[in-house]
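Memo to structure team: turn this sequence into structure tokens by end of day. - J.P.
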Amino acid sequence: MATEKKTTAPNPVWFKPIMFGLMLLGLAWIIVYYVSQSALPVPGLGAWNIAIGFGIMFIGFIMTTRWR
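Reply from structure team:
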């Protein structure tokens, strides 16, 4: 019986820039919120801007589990 080695394909070229880009975008979103004293990025959302920033970063973090 031959043992078959399971290989996984490498990620597409766009995967790593999108992954790191999402993490940096989320961080920038939160920094802009604090530096602008809640006037930016979306003034009507108030403290929800923090949740949006963490959500964007979390999507990037989830992508790290698929990074090969």
